[in-house]
């Protein structure tokens, strides 16, 4: 059985799990931290904005069921790709939008998708989401994993903090 991984940062990782986790072909979605300079950071360290990490999700998927391009499309619809200073109510560098690519194929897919978004820009502001090479990924503490299942009411509050309205306004299918 073939498996690949994808890493996306788009604000609070609590809100990034469910949209991927509910898709066919997804083996796991792990909340964690990447892109920084500290080994195995804690949530408190990342929140201090001193480690350089961003909250992200690492998705393990079966490419025979769901392709990387499909995951990138889902990613765009969960983020505000025009906001470099965070996402929705989550502010700061640890919430910046980044697609972390693992190799030339993922990079080409992500860059093509970003260019299509730029060309068809449904936003008033420019697309700023970065595409960067994969960096070490550190799983977050257990209480952050599967947050939307463990805390459905709090997840709904987080989701409704601007993210849902933004998505509905800009990503009509």
From TrEMBL:
This is Peptide methionine sulfoxide reductase MsrA. SUPFAM superfamilies: Peptide methionine sulfoxide reductase. Residues 5-154 form the Peptide methionine sulphoxide reductase MsrA domain. It is an enzyme of class 1 (oxidoreductase). Its EC number is 1.8.4.11. Keywords: Oxidoreductase. Belongs to the MsrA Met sulfoxide reductase family. The active site is at 12. PANTHER family: PEPTIDE METHIONINE SULFOXIDE REDUCTASE, PEPTIDE METHIONINE SULFOXIDE REDUCTASE MSRA 2. Has an important function as a repair enzyme for proteins that have been inactivated by oxidation. Catalyzes the reversible oxidation-reduction of methionine sulfoxide in proteins to methionine. It catalyses: L-methionyl-[protein] + [thioredoxin]-disulfide + H2O = L-methionyl-(S)-S-oxide-[protein] + [thioredoxin]-dithiol; [thioredoxin]-disulfide + L-methionine + H2O = L-methionine (S)-S-oxide + [thioredoxin]-dithiol. GO terms for molecular function: L-methionine:thioredoxin-disulfide S-oxidoreductase activity; peptide-methionine (S)-S-oxide reductase activity. It comes from Paucilactobacillus hokkaidonensis JCM 18461. NCBIfam families: msrA (TIGR00401). Coiled coil: none annotated. Pfam families: PMSR. Gene3D superfamilies: Peptide methionine sulphoxide reductase MsrA (3.30.1060.10). InterPro entries: Met_Sox_Rdtase_MsrA_dom, Met_Sox_Rdtase_MsrA_sf.
